[in-house]
Specification:
It is built from 8 helices and 10 strands. By secondary structure, it is of the alpha+beta class. The protein has a 4-stranded antiparallel sheet with strand order 8-9-7-10. The chain has a 3-stranded mixed sheet with strand order 1-2-3. The longest helix has 17 residues.
């Protein structure tokens, strides 16, 4: 997916000889979390965050605050998923873009990249969401795919949505079939089913048995 059409140049990087007051004024006018900074030769240095800038003395120059510069960026050839990851890792809604020879080209906005994600089949195609989990060393995507497809399901997307205590949680988008048979198969393969959008007949069966047992014990 070519992201070059999403590169924006509305806001030019400030230089390290600009004053902090100029930077503060720019943040007051914008909704960006960071502003790119370059040196007098036009070389990209990194970004300064709004949170930090409002703590600086306004009469200082930007170069006096160089210790707070965050050096994150992506290349113009970086995959859109890696771009999205860079946004998340740096808690930013703006991502500077450099060419292969380190020329500053502009920046991406977070909303534009998220919009691309929303256009993928994971979100745009009809289907059901299933969340399963298994030991970090025990699961495999080939096994996950095999379980879905052996039950005539169509795997529209899958990603690791959580890792905690050596357990990986996997979120699946599945089309073309009911989830019940798929969930039963995941359990047979020792996966824990965390959530499914469709009615889970296994859970409903357990609830019915539990209710029956409670009624029996209360006789």
């Amino acid at each position: 997916m070519n992201l070059s059409n999403f590169i924006i140049n509305d806001i030019k990087p400030l230089t390290n000889t600009d004053t902090v007051s100029e930077l503060q004024l720019l943040f007051n006018q914008l909704t960006y979390s960071h502003i790119p900074i370059k040196n007098d030769e036009g070389v990209y240095l990194g970004c300064l965050s709004e949170t930090d800038v409002h703590c600086f003395e306004s009469n200082k120059q930007v170069k006096d605050c160089s210790y707070a510069v965050e050096g994150f960026f992506v290349r113009d050839q970086t995959n859109w998923l890696d771009v999205l990851e860079a946004f998340a890792q740096n808690s930013s809604n703006i991502m500077p873009v450099l060419s292969a020879n380190n020329t500053y080209l502009g920046y991406y906005e977070l909303n534009d990249i998220i919009g691309l994600f929303n256009e993928t089949p994971f979100f745009s195609e009809a289907g059901a969401i299933l969340i399963v989990e298994k030991g970090l060393l025990d699961y495999s995507f080939s096994e996950v795919s095999q379980i879905v497809e052996s039950n005539n399901g169509k795997l529209l997307g899958a990603f690791i949505s959580k890792i905690e205590n050596d357990v990986a949680q996997i979120t699946l988008k599945i089309g073309n079939t009911s989830l019940n048979d798929i969930m039963q198969t995941f359990r047979r393969y020792s996966y824990n089913v965390v959530a499914g959008q469709e009615e889970d007949s296994y859970i409903e069966s357990l609830k019915e048995r539990s209710n029956y047992l409670n009624k029996y014990l209360n006789i």
